[in-house]
Write the structure tokens for this entry.
Amino acid sequence: MKTQNETLVQGTGTALRGDNVDTDRIYPARFMKRLTFEGIEEFAFYDERRAAADRGEKHPMEGAGASVFLFVNRNFGCGSSREHAPQSLYRSGVRVIVGESFADIFKGNAVNAGILCLTADHDSVAACQDAADQGAVFTLDCAGTGLTAPSLAVRVEGDPVLTAKFASGALDPVSEGVAALGLVKRQSERIPYLSW
Amino acid sequence: MGKTLYDKVIDLHAVEEVSAGRVRLFVGLHLVHEATSAPAFAMLKERGLVPAHPDRTFAVTDHVIPTDGKPWSDPVGQAMEESLRANSLGAGIRYAGPGSEESGVVHVIGPELGLTQPGMTVACGDSHTSTHGAFGAVAFGVGTTQVAEILASQTVVVPRLPVRQVRLEGRLPRGVYAKDVILHVIHEMGAKAGAGWAYEFSGSAVEQMSMEERMTLCNMAVEAGARYGYVNPDKKTIAYIKGRRYAPQNKEWDKAVAFWESIRSDSDAVFGDVVQFNVSNMEPAVTWGILPEHAVPVTGAVPADEGLEEARAYMGFQAGAPVRGTVINTAFIGSCTNGRISDFEEAAKILKGRRVAPGVRTLAVPGSERVLKQIRERGLDKVFADAGFELRKPGCSMCLAMNNDKLTGTETAASSSNRNFKGRQGSPTGRTLLMSPAMVAAAAVAGRVVDVRGYLEGGNNENAE
């Protein structure tokens, strides 16, 4: 994804319009019947894609494999804590989601799944969605605050620490947790109920 | 300056501040279930790690479990149960196997067993972990990688949030329950209002609620956008926990009570925001749409707003249609929202002396083996059987239909669960109407959505239509 020193991510995008896109739509529960995340990209927006095909339409996520950006509206990812939701998007090629707002649990899971969630205002998102429909190539700068495409420049916001982690590829909560085990022991000695 | 319960519990459990506004929290109780944990255990195995604190962990299979009392007919579900069993036993983690007396829906058994206690941090790979906040715990849902993080280190990194106090004042009218209150709150505030907040539910109405009602309230905080929802512990909380299997005892009991009383929000605590609702005039609620905020009073109608076309079309409603009279084919009482003994008691009051309408498929799914036992001990099983309402074995069941309990086609369910998203109950075109267990019981009898207040003792059914 890093093609030049000044870019963090570059590529085409997918416009997914509408507020409150919930985790059951992103990843229906019946596909959680498995023991690993292998192959789960097949099920991202499964029912929505089938419903669109039945209407003779093409869902935006159908064959969106090459697109690294996803442009969404408000409260994206509301609902379940299923990490299958951002994982299936990551495995479909998504690396950055730019939206008006995200649900808290989804946003936390996305970074662990390798996806950066950034926010932008409604008009900026709409402009990106239109440009994405035209096949524009988007460039996100290293700071993760400026998104550009031909004839388009929008400001995006994120947590600088998470953006830095995303940039360096250093997303390893398990190892970081293990590294903190000494501190954990010290803190746990101050928690009363642990000694009951 | 005084502190909120949330602040006190975060301060106590914060191992380190990893970056501005993000803390590594010790997890006092880690609940594990089969739908989100297998890849987490695999992540540990790959790195040669073992769980750091099996003693602070408890596991159960609930999402995929059959509720028909028959042996497994689902090889993948069975493999998930076996995987969790093997992983738990291999690590010394307590595991309540299917049918065992401690088993059931994870957010029902935690409190039942006295595992959930005030002042704890509680995490689980399930968004409705907020339920445990009813005990004055800081309880939250996490994803699979976070489950691995917690297994490996007994900690998880989360943002520290401001607290919004949601004051519920007044007295609940007859036929109006905690479920109706929270649906009303979600409707008024919107499904995303709680994003970035922890919710404290307080006020006279909350004080009057039982622990099970408080659990219903906190369970659905996440549907209001709030990952955390809690109630300050009080005498009811302490009385509920006393004597439960994993509750402190003897000298430790007294120390525990003192600790629990100390973590209540201070009277001079400062909240980031305060909102207030009066419950005294609330009505039974029904969701008509595809988001929990799409709720109306049972006497109300499907709104005509632009922007709701997709929801109306999916649910087959015309703008302005009254929700009363909506035909249902399925009635489901259960879930971590409303699968406890008081929920079945309320439903039984409505079913007593009545029969389920022809053509309505019914599922009464207890939240745990213990709840099922209580149902039988109180003779509620006979009330359900006499009414033709099918009592089943415990599990998450039709809340999200990961087992065989599913809708077919555009079947419409009256459901005591927590989400009405498109396709939620197992059919991509299935329709879910959320309501209280009493309302589900009344709908089952009528074969359509009715006002439960007409079915209460002293009411006659005609008033309900």
